[in-house]
Amino acid sequence: MKNSVYLKDVVTLQLDDNKCTGCGMCVDVCPHEVFKMNGKHITIQNRDSCMECGACSLNCPASAIFVESGVGCAAAVINSMLGREGECCCGTDTKGGCCS
Ligand code: SF4
Ligand code: SF4
């Protein structure tokens, strides 16, 4: 899963190097290993593997990451994991699984 690539060059993920403190939180929370520690700085190594789940942005203490999250199946999968009900992009009720 970590090397999955979705559509190329459409990911909204943006990193503000000037705000980043190099804490490494985004590396820890990203399920697809999109980020890599490069010394004391973060770099985006697998941009096209980002599924726009928003975990990095939500957990970044420096607000250095922007990503448009909350759309499509990534949001549905997360909602399902949290036990929330809602529409999935494939039309399946997310309770009990989405796109599986
Ligand atoms: S979580 Fe934010 S501040 Fe920490 S390394 Fe990642 S981008 Fe930088
Ligand atoms: S939005 Fe999710 S998949 Fe994309 S870089 Fe952030 S944590 Fe990783």
Annotate the secondary structure layout:
Blueprint: E1 14-15, H1 25-29, E2 35-38, E3 41-44, H2 55-59, E4 65-66, H3 72-81
Antiparallel strand pairs: 1-4, 2-3
The structure holds iron/sulfur cluster (2 copies).
Residues 15, 20-26, 42, 60, 62, 64-65 line the site of one iron/sulfur cluster.
Q: How would you describe what is shown here?
A:
The chain has 100 residues and is of the alpha+beta class. The protein folds into two domains: 1-69, Alpha-Beta Plaits; 70-100, no CATH class. It has three helices and four strands, in the order βαββαβα. The chain has helices at residues 25-29, 55-59, 72-81, and strands spanning 14-15, 35-38, 41-44, 65-66. The longest helix has 10 residues, at 72-81. The protein is globular. Residues 87-100 have low confidence and may be disordered. One iron/sulfur cluster is lined by residues 15, 20-26, 42, 60, 62, 64-65.
Bound small molecules, by name, code or SMILES, are: iron/sulfur cluster
- Our measurement of the CA-to-CA distance between the termini, rounded to an integer number of angstroms, reads 14 Å
**What amount of the residues lies in strands?**
5-15%
CATH top level of the largest domain is Alpha Beta
Q: Could you say what the CATH architecture of the largest domain is?
A: 2-Layer Sandwich
* E-strand count: 4
Order of helices and strands: EHEEHEH
> Which descriptor suits the 3D outline?
globular
Q: Largest sheet, described in full? A: 2 strands, antiparallel
Q: If strands are numbered along the chain, what order do they take across the biggest sheet? A: 1-4
> Percent range for helical residues?
10-25%
What count of helical segments does DSSP give?
A: 3
Q: Any idea what the radius of gyration is?
A: 14 Å
Low-confidence blocks of residues:
87-100
- Report mean pLDDT, rounded to a whole number: 79
* CATH fold node name of the largest domain: Alpha-Beta Plaits
